[in-house]
C-alpha cells in the first residue's frame, strides 16, 4: 500500500523557490547599465564640445548618472542626475561642455561617464559602469595674423590674402555668404585666393574662418575694398539656321527633344548650362596646394567678341525667350586655330563638357584654374603637365558655339572670375606678385 506524501512541504519549497527567483531577478540583477557616448571623444576637448549620451538599463532601473572631468586630481562635475524610484530604464542626455566655464585649463584631463542601477548586487551597492576617456584640453583659439594689406577686389574679380597662425590648422579659408574658398599652406604661410562673384551684393562680407586640430573654430575679419563694376547687356537673336545647325549635337543628351529645335535650345541654355557649371565646380575642388603659374596669363591671338559678365538676352523671331550671363571671354580666330596653355599647370579635365563642347581645364595651383571651350581637337592628355605657350588643342564649334572661336574662362575654386585680370601684367604684378615678394615667397 502506497503512503501519500504531504503536499504542503512541496508547495512550500516551490513557493520559496519562486520567491527566491523573484527577489533575485527583481533586486539582485547582475547586468550593469550600458553607456554609449556620441561622438566618441578624440584626442582633444576644445572650447566648445557637444556629446549625446545614451544609457540603457535592463533590470532594476537607473539609480544615478554622472559626468565628471578630472584634472590635476580634482574632479569637476559636469552633470549628475539621481533617480530615487525604480523604472528609469533609458536616459538620453545632450551635454555641452565648455572647459573654460568649468575653470579647467589647457592640458591633460580625463572625461568620465558613470551610471549605477538599483540592484542590490555587490552588497547592496548595485551594478555600475564607468567609461573613462583620457583627453587633452585645448580651449585656446589660434592666433591669426593677416600679412597682406591691400585687398582691392573688383566685382567679378579675384584677390590674394596671406596669413600665419601660431599653431597647425586643419581647415581654413575665406567665407563669402554661402561660398567657401579654402586656403593652402606654402613655405610656412597660408595663401588664399578668393573671388568677389559677379552676382554678389555690394554689401558682401568676407571673413576668415579657421579650425585647429582640437576643433576650436575661429573667425577673423580683415580690411578689403570692394569695387563695384557694371557689366554689359547684349541682345542675341537666335535664328532657325543656328538651331538647325547646332541643336542635333545635343539630342544624344536629350533624345526626347529630337526634332524640337527651340525646346532643345532652351533646355541646353538653361539646364545643361547649370549642370555644366556644377560639373566644373566638382573638377575644381582638387588642386595643387602651391602656385604653378608664372607671370601673367597669355591671350590667344584673335579678336575678342564677348566679355566676362555680359548679360545676354536671347530673342527668337522678335520674342524674348531667355537670359543668361557669359562667364568668360570669347576670342574669334581662323578655323582650327592652335590654342596655347595660358600658363603653367596640370591638365585636370579633357573631354566633352556640356555647353562648352570639347574642353580642357588646367589646374594652376592654389585653386586657380583655366578653361578652354569649343575645341575641335585635343593635343594633351588628362594629368599632363603643360607650360605657358604649349599647344593644347585647336579651336572649333563644339558645344553651344555659333562659329569657330575659343571660349576662355578663369576660375577660383570653381567660381568664374574675369580672365582679363589674369591677362593684365599690371594687375598680376600689383595684386599677386608684389604680395608674394614682400613675404619672401618668390624672388
Features:
443 residues, alpha+beta, Immunoglobulin-like, Glucose Permease (Domain IIA), ten-stranded antiparallel sheet, five-stranded mixed sheet, 5 helices
Textual characterization of the structure:
The protein is of the alpha+beta class and 443 residues long. It has three domains: 31-137, Sandwich (Immunoglobulin-like); 144-227, Immunoglobulin-like, CATH 2.60.40.10; 233-412, Glucose Permease (Domain IIA). The chain is built from five helices and 31 strands. It has helices at residues 7-27, 240-246, 261-283, 419-423, 425-438; strands at residues 34-38, 44-45, 49-56, 62-71, 74-82, 90-97, 107-117, 128-137, 144-146, 152-154, 158-165, 169-176, 179-182, 184-186, 189-195, 206-212, 217-220, 225-227, 233-237, 303-306, 310-316, 319-326, 329-332, 338-340, 345-352, 358-363, 368-378, 385-386, 391-395, 405-412, 415-417. Strand 25 (345-352) and strand 26 (358-363) form a beta hairpin. The longest helix has 23 residues, at 261-283. It is elongated, with a radius of gyration of 34 Å. The mean pLDDT is 92.
CATH superfamily of the largest domain: Glucose Permease (Domain IIA)
What is the CATH topology classification name of the largest domain?
Answer: Glucose Permease (Domain IIA)
Radius of gyration, whole Å: 34 Å
- Overall mean pLDDT stands at 92
CATH architecture of the largest domain: Distorted Sandwich
What characteristic shape results from the CA principal axes? elongated
Q: In percent, how helical is the residue content?
A: 10-25%
